[in-house]
User: Fold Helix-turn-helix protein from Paenibacillus taihuensis.
Amino acid sequence: MKKWDDFINEMEPERRKEAQIIQAKARMVSELIHIRETLGWTQQQLADAAGMKQPAIARFEGGTTAPSIETIIRIALALNVQIRFVGSTAGLEEAASFEEEVFV
Assistant:
């Protein structure tokens, strides 16, 4: 049986990018939901901590809205988590020195 990544890699480049975006979004949302639930927080508690309304958290977690970078950062700060970009391509030595400035 094929793995999801194998399936994505066999797609046409344009469709592959779309699938990778959907996959990355789903992973991020899933991780933030997991962190919220691990803390024992309700959506309302997260909304209060992030300065948002509960329906906005529900839409974010349900995938029915595309949140802004500001919204993602608000949620990350409320959950006390860091957002990092990790790459596996050449030339990341320069980016590594910049890492401390770009994570929340």
User: Anything to note?
Assistant: The chain has one domain: 4-102. The CA atoms of residues 90 and 96 lie 12 Å apart.
